[in-house]
UniProtKB/TrEMBL annotation:
GO CC aspect terms: mitochondrial inner membrane
Keywords, ordered alphabetically: Electron transport, FAD, Flavoprotein, Iron, Iron-sulfur, Metal-binding, Oxidoreductase, Transport, Ubiquinone
Keyword Lipid metabolism: no
Designated name of the protein: Electron transfer flavoprotein-ubiquinone oxidoreductase
Amino acid sequence: ARQCFHALKLIKKDCLLSLRVSRCASTTSVPRITTHYTIHPRDKDKRWEGVNMERFAEEADVVIVGGGPAGLSAAIRLKQLAAEHSKEVRVCLVEKASQIGAHTLSGACLEPRSLEELFPDWKERGAPLNTPVTEDKFGILTETSRIPVPILPGLPMVNHGNYIVRLGHFVSWLGEQAEALGVEIYPGYAAAEVLFHEDGSVKGIATNDVGIQKDGAPKATFERGLELHAKVTVFAEGCHGHLAKQLYKKYNLRENCQPQSYGIGLKELWTIDEKKWKPGRVEHTVGWPLDRHTYGGSFLYHLNEREPLVALGFVVGLDYQNPYLNPFREFQRWKHHPSVQPTLEGGTRIAYGARALNEGGIQVI
C-alpha cells in the first residue's frame, strides 16, 4: 500500500508539472480575439507598410446610418420637407445588409399612427399591412396553466387598430418609397467609423474596408472604405451600435443618466396546421418559465400572409440575477407550455433570429 501511495504521488507531481508547461505554452500561442485596427493599429503592423490608405470622400447634406424603420422614416420625411420648401437636399443612407430589410426580423405589431403621418395614402401605395388585429389575449403563465388577464381600455396591451406585419417586408417597402423620393440608398455598406472635424463636431462616417484576411493582413484586393461627409449625420443603427458607443465615449454621453438596461429578443417564424391558424390574433404572456426576479415575456402573432404563419418570440432582460439562466433555453421551455405547444404541433420553423433591445426608459437618455 505504501508503494502504491508513493507511485500515485509521483504520477500527480508529473501531471501537475506537465499541466504547468502546457499552460505556459498556451499563453504564448493564444490567438488574437480580434484583429480590428482599433485594437491593433495598422501603423505598428509591418504587413501594412506601403499600402495606400487614402479614402475617396463624398459630400451630402444628410447622412443616415441604418436602414431600419427609424432611418428610412427620417430619410423619407427629410425629402418630403425638402419638396414642400422647394429645396434640393441630398440624403444618403447606408445599410450593412445586402438589401434593405434583409437584417430585419419578421414579426411585429405596428401602431400605424406615424405611418399615417408619413404616407396618408399608404394603402393605395401597397404597404404590406395585411393583418389587422382582431383578437387580443394576455395571460400569466404558471408551470402547468395559464391565468387569463382582462385587457382594459387604455392599457398598452390593447392592439385593436394595429397591424401584425412581417417587419422585413415592411422595411423593404419603406426602402422603395425612399428611393422614389430621391434618397440615395447604399445597401451592403457598413458604417465603420465616425469622422470628426477639428473642433470636435461630427463630420460624417466612413464605411468598412474590404479585402482583409482573418489575421488582419491586407489582401491583394484590399480597398479602403468610402467617406461620407455631411452637414447632419443621423445615427439610426439600432441598439448598442458600435458608432453610438464611439459617440458615448467622445462626448461623454453616459455621464448624467442612469445605466442603460438591455434585453435579448429571440424570434421565430413558423408555418402551422391551418386548423389552428387564427389570422389577426395577438397573444402576450408573462411569468413562467421566468421567475419573479427576471424581467421578460412572450408574444405569439397569427399573420395573414396567404399561408398559415405565426411569429413568436421571447424577451429576457439581460439584468437577470441567475448566472446560469440561458435565455434561448427558456424560450424552448416556453414553447412546450401546455397553452403554447398545441399551436406549434405539426408545424415547421422556417426562420429564426435574435437581437438586442433597449429596455431603459427616458431616465437613461
